[in-house]
Write a structure and sequence with these properties.
With 405 residues, this protein is of the alpha+beta class. The protein has 18 helices and nine strands. Bound molecules: protoporphyrin IX containing FE. Protoporphyrin IX containing FE binds at residues 65, 92-93, 104, 155, 238-239, 242-243, 246-247, 250, 288-289, 293, 346-348, 352, 354-356, 359-360.
Length: 405
């Protein structure tokens, strides 16, 4: 690709980009690493593609994740006053210090790597049950039948939702997937209202009778600053919105990557102790969140030689940063399970670093390992070049992953 005019002003929104973003990102990273992107509604964003610029942006308090700042910007743009509903307005992923700080402290106390590790047997059981259902099918789809439901059920279990409510939970989670916090008018659809009622009742129950689950731990995390019921409800929403699509995207992406790399797959199966060490390279290579990191500038900010005015949207292309040759000099586009400690940005960086990173790794390792252990001859049912990614601005999931066991 030559000359900047080769790219349209909607360059990141095209289906060609969704299906194969890497050549475009390689070009942008080299030629205009902080590049403007237009939206059909007249809005615009600044896309950051270099690793160092992305880290600087994520550490910069002038770049805000506060949902109120985002809604204010949208209200100005559309001329309609928009406010976030309480479920979105009171959780850590949507707030900045000082409101972020006590919520983050509570979740760091309650949601430890140990809690994620303790879920291993349960994750294995849920993965096996989902695989049992797929085992008899001639051409099962590992996205709709495996990668999508697995994290929803695990997160329900994590939060102490009883098994008889899991089917409802799946339905509500699907509704949450299509609901965008930055596009709504503040009204929640019926499914999400049902979820909200259900969670409020569950939280009231855990307040009276705490269990061993994460919601109970959150309620009792910090005796000096008890979270309010609204904050706990909202944090429950953060766990679902933050954990479901992202983990589903990673599970599907890792399985597809290992189907396409039989030598690496054989190594992992021969030496299961390597799964843990290989996970970060798989996550770097797959980049399950695509371009999900978004901020709004609260002051003019210089990034990569470009001055971005105040009140502008900044998008960090994690897919691009994870393949930046300055950070990953040896074959950044290749999967190399021996790459030493690949410091990818798939879980973010700075104060909003993903609270569920360890659980996401546990789920993905078990999902891939159980599939390949149980069905050692599993292969793509279509030519891998026919696989399609969903047109999704947040995560980067495959539409379907049909296989033959
Ligand atoms: C592969 C799976 C996952 C990926 C790629 C991922 C990615 C991320 C990223 C990039 C952020 C930072 C967002 C930003 O700075 O703008 C984040 C935050 C967060 N994630 Fe994850 N996540 C995953 C799984 C999970 C899971 C399983 C949970 C919980 C069950 C979770 C809960 C959270 C929460 C609560 C935050 C907000 C932290 C804060 O704002 O302080 N994530 N995640």
């Amino acid at each position: 690709m030559t000359g900047t005019r080769a790219l349209s002003k909607y360059w990141m929104l095209t289906n060609d980009f969704t299906q194969n973003p890497y050549p475009v990102l390689e070009y942008v990273r080299r030629e205009s690493p902080v590049r403007e992107l237009s939206f059909p509604d007249g809005g615009r964003a600044w896309v950051v593609t270099r690793y160092e610029d992305a880290k600087a942006a994520l550490a910069d308090p002038r770049l805000s994740r506060d949902v109120h700042v985002h809604y204010r910007l949208m209200s100005e743009r559309t001329g309609r006053t928009m406010t976030p509903p309480p479920e979105e307005a009171n959780h850590l992923a949507n707030l900045e210090p000082p409101r972020h700080t006590p919520l983050r402290r509570a979740i760091s106390f309650a949601f430890t790597p140990r809690r994620a590790e303790a879920l291993r047997p349960k994750v294995e059981q849920i993965a096996d049950e989902l695989l049992d259902r797929l085992a008899g099918l001639p051409r099962p789809d590992l996205i709709s039948g495996y990668a999508d439901p697995l994290p929803v059920i695990v997160i329900a279990e994590l939060m102490g939702v009883p098994a008889d409510a899991w089917p409802d939970f799946l339905r509500w989670s699907t509704a949450l997937r299509t609901h965008s916090p930055t596009e709504g008018s503040g009204a929640l659809d019926r499914n999400i209202q049902e979820l909200s009622h259900y969670m409020s009742a569950l939280i009231a129950e855990k307040e009276r009778e705490p269990g061993e689950d994460l919601l109970s731990a959150l309620i009792h995390a910090d005796p000096e600053r008890r979270l309010t019921s609204t904050e706990i409800l909202s944090t429950g929403f953060a766990l679902m919105t933050g954990g479901n699509d992202t983990t589903a995207s990673l599970v599907g992406g890792v399985i597809a990557a290992l189907l396409a790399h039989p030598a690496e797959r054989a190594e992992l199966l021969a030496e299961p102790g390597r799964w843990g060490r290989s996970m970060d390279e798989l996550i770097r290579y797959v980049s399950p969140i695509g371009n999900a990191l978004q901020r709004v500038t609260t002051e003019p900010v210089e990034l990569g030689g470009v001055t971005i005015p105040a009140g502008e949207v900044v998008v960090i292309s994690v897919m691009s940063t994870n393949r930046d040759p300055h950070q990953f000099p040896d074959d950044p586009d290749g999967l190399d399970l021996t790459r030493p400690k690949p410091a990818h940005l798939s879980f973010g960086f700075g104060i909003h670093y993903c609270s569920g990173a360890h659980l996401a790794k546990v789920i993905t390792e078990i999902a891939a390992r159980r599939l390949f252990e149980r069905f050692p001859r599993v292969r793509f049912a279509v030519d891998p070049s026919e696989l399609r990614y969903q047109q999704n601005v947040v995560v980067r999931p495959l539409e379907a992953l049909p296989v033959v066991f």
